[in-house]
């Protein structure tokens, strides 16, 4: 099996992206990003700013939103629901890993 790496993007954790750059990196038009912001699926750094900017984590959410939209032919509300559920699953996995780390280890 051959795996090809088609895209790599290294962003600093505190890197701020204007909406135009987020649109370019994610493949979503700015209008759809604005819809995701309105629904609360993606949060800008300052919602009151004239030009919205986003942190690096929003690139992951926006790219996931585009893949969900394209792969499953979802509308904005469907994408928001799927992103919310994916975030919840991630949070639960983190909690589970934390709880497992607290369990005493059995020596065999």
Architecture overview:
By secondary structure, the chain is mainly α. A two-stranded antiparallel sheet has the order 1-2. Helix 1 crosses helix 3 and helix 3 crosses helix 4. The chain has four helices and two strands; from the N terminus they run βααβαα. The mean pLDDT is 89.
**Nearest-angstrom radius of gyration?**
17 Å
Structural class of the secondary elements? Answer: mainly alpha
Low-confidence stretches: none
Spell out the helices and strands N to C: EHHEHH
User: How far apart, in Å, are the first and last alpha carbons?
Assistant: 38 Å
Question: What is the fold's blueprint, element by element?
Answer:
Elements (H helix, E strand, L loop, with lengths): L15 E3 H8 L3 H10 L13 E3 L1 H16 L3 H27 L6
Antiparallel strand pairs: 1-2
Helix pairs in contact: 1-3, 3-4
Descriptors:
two-stranded antiparallel ribbon, mainly alpha, 108 residues
Short description:
The chain is mainly alpha-helical. The chain has helices at residues 19-26, 30-39, 57-72, 76-102; strands spanning 16-18, 53-55. Helices cover 56% and strands 6% of the residues.
């Amino acid at each position: 099996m051959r795996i090809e790496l088609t895209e790599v993007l290294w962003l600093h954790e505190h890197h701020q992206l204007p909406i135009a750059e987020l649109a370019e990196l994610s493949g979503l038009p700015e209008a759809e990003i604005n819809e995701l912001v309105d629904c609360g699926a993606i949060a800008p750094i300052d919602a009151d700013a004239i030009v919205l900017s986003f942190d690096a984590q929003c690139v992951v959410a926006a790219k996931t939103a585009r893949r969900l939209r394209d792969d499953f032919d979802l509308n904005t509300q469907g994408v928001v629901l799927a992103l919310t559920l994916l975030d919840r699953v991630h949070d639960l996995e983190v909690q589970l890993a934390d709880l497992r780390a607290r369990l005493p280890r059995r020596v065999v």
